[in-house]
């Protein structure tokens, strides 16, 4: 598990390898990840959007942006958390992801970024 705190918001990420499959005659490696967003601050916040950078061992880089997470824009009150699961496909058995969430503080109405710490994705059978 990796964790990081930015402006009172703690991000924790756990990953798992889901398996391999062929798509368009090419082998893909599927990874799942679970993110917990914990508000350790004193004001309620809302997650509005996210931006991910996905790296694989073949030097492919993909950027993914969008509103909310898995179709939600959670409001997280002080002392509460929001957990969701998602996944990604790589064309190699190793990779990594990092990024940030765009959030708004309800008390100040100011937007701010929360870093998503870089986490590694690796298929267990490929680890030496």
TrEMBL record:
<feature type="domain" description="ApaG">
    <location>
        <begin position="3"/>
        <end position="128"/>
    </location>
</feature>
<dbReference type="InterPro" id="IPR007474">
    <property type="entry name" value="ApaG_domain"/>
</dbReference>
<protein>
    <submittedName>
        <fullName>Co2+/Mg2+ efflux protein ApaG</fullName>
    </submittedName>
</protein>
<dbReference type="Pfam" id="PF04379">
    <property type="entry name" value="DUF525"/>
</dbReference>
<dbReference type="InterPro" id="IPR050718">
    <property type="entry name" value="ApaG-like"/>
</dbReference>
<dbReference type="InterPro" id="IPR036767">
    <property type="entry name" value="ApaG_sf"/>
</dbReference>
């Amino acid at each position: 598990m990796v964790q990081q705190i930015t402006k009172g918001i703690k991000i924790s990420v756990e990953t798992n390898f889901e398996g391999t499959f062929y798509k368009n005659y090419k082998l893909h490696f599927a990874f799942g990840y679970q993110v917990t967003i914990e508000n350790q601050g004193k004001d309620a916040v809302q997650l509005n959007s996210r931006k991910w950078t996905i790296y694989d061992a073949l030097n492919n880089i993909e950027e993914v942006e969008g509103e909310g997470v898995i179709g939600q824009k959670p409001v997280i009150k002080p002392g509460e958390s929001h957990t969701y699961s998602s996944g990604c496909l790589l064309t190699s058995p190793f990779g990594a992801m990092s990024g940030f969430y765009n959030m708004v503080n309800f008390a100040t109405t100011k937007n701010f970024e929360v870093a998503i710490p870089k986490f590694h994705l690796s298929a267990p059978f490929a680890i030496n």
